[in-house]
Amino acid sequence: MPQVTITVNGPGEVAGWLQPLVSELRKRQPLIRICVAVVPCVYSTGLEYDLIRSQTEIDAVCTAKETMSLVFRNRLPPGFHRNGSGFVLHLGGDSVLTLLLARRLGQPCLAYVEKPIPMETFFAAVFYSGIWADSRVAKSNGKRIIGDMMIDAAMMHCRGRLPARSGLNTVGLYPGSRDYLVKFVLPFYAAVAEKLKTCRTDIEWLLAKSDFLAGDFLRDIPDVNDGRRIEGVNLSWLTEAGREYVVTPTGIRIEILPHGAVAARAKLVLTLPGSNTAELAALGVPMIITIPSWKSELIPWPGLTGHVDRIPFIGKYIKRAVGHLIYRSIGYAAHPNRRIRSMVVPELVGHIRTGQVVDLVRTMLDSDLRPLEDKLRAVMGPPGATGRLVTELQDFLAGDNA
Q1: Has residue 313 been placed in a domain?
Q2: Do both 71 and 185 map to the same domain?
Q3: In the beta sheet, which residues pair with residue 256?
Q4: Is residue 260 located within the same domain as residue 392?
Q5: Residue 118 maps to which CATH number?
Q6: Phi then psi for 169, rounded to 5 degrees?
Q7: Residue 49 sits in which domain range?
Q8: Which of 75, 182, 195, 264 is the most exposed place for a label (fewest CB within 10 A)?
Q9: Does 25 share its domain with 50?
């Protein structure tokens, strides 16, 4: 029985790539063994292992600690096999770790990535999402552009767009999947809702809860009066008639729903950058990207930048300044903007204020958003990348077993 081992690292890879891939792979190859190895990542939430383990199509999963133990100590995690037919597929993390893992398992190594990765010449095949129009990708042998699986993930998580309730303008809030960001971003979004209430009474607010955010965190969100410079209001918790809300000081109820349910109903979304911007764009959901840099020292940047804050007294201020510069130099953060190097949806970066967001929300809600919806779907393209990748993987298996 062939074994496919897939490496993943953070929430975006798990929700946007792994989930649709495993579902399609299991559908096409019901007898194949599917194993998932979580690899270390500074952007991990710590809940990846539990969420992956709950996906019934997966036969075995190991933690990042167990993956490292296999790579450096040759200790095989439970449920994993060696030296059989199959392959290791890199979906995220350090590509060198994936190669070392494949060596330990005695299998060839493949990859699905957004852009060129280190040590590519050691991979049997590299497949690209196509988000970067890179001539090195298009012209290199053994590399194929098969499309973005996040489009398929969007269709999986959201079964269809729904009309707004009672003619209300539904605004979705996507504050992220990491508690150290949600504690600042969600109260900021709630402050935006408070200001909008003074001039707009036709807005229904929804909160998209990430599967990677612990449920108890929203019940007891930290107090905003902690010296933070970014604006925000305190939120209380409410359960009523089987529905859950966070409530602002003036009584605005923000219903908590899975992110797919919010995408189905939202006319407009406020969100941090991330894989969710690809899924929202694929569904044609207009959005405003907010990248506040008031507390950028909290972001676990990779490399040396991520450790600067350990310098006594001045470290966090250096990291904050560097983080602010990084944000400013990003260019485009939202997936649809990155695809065509143009500001399809607006991005607010830096020391942003609630007033800036309020003005932009009012302008967009008062506009005809249908042309933007159509453009977002056109930029992202149709679904089907997962099926194309699985076909490539099946062909590789057939050739390997010939």
Answers
A1: yes
A2: no
A3: 207
A4: no
A5: 3.40.50.2000
A6: -85, 110
A7: 3-147+384-401
A8: 75
A9: yes
* CA–CA gap between residue 44 and residue 38 (Å, rounded): 10
C-beta of residue 286 within 8 angstroms of C-beta of residue 268: yes
Say if 156 falls within a structural domain: no
Structure tokens at 313: 């007294």
d(CA 3, CA 266): 40
Q: What is the DSSP letter of 222?
A: P
Cα 250 from Cα 233, distance rounded (Å): 10
Angle at 198 between CA 193 and CA 201, to 5 degrees: 75
Give percent of the chain with pLDDT exceeding 90: 62
Instruction: Tell me the per-residue pLDDT of 147-194, one tens digit each, with 9 for 90 and over.
Output: 999 999 998 888 766 665 556 899 999 998 888 889 999 999 999 999
3-state SS class at 141: coil
Q: Give the 3-state secondary structure of residue 249.
A: coil
Does this model's pTM top 0.70? My answer is: yes
* Token reading at 51: 């969420």
For helices 179-197 and 354-365, give the axis angle rounded to 10 degrees.
60
Q: What is the spatial distance between Cα 140 and Cα 172, in angstroms, rounded to a whole number?
A: 41
Q: Is residue 297 part of a domain?
A: yes
Count of domains in the chain? 2
DSSP per-residue codes, 276-329? HHHHHHHTT--EEEEEE-TTGGGS--SSGGGGGGGSTTTHHHHHHHHHHHHHHH
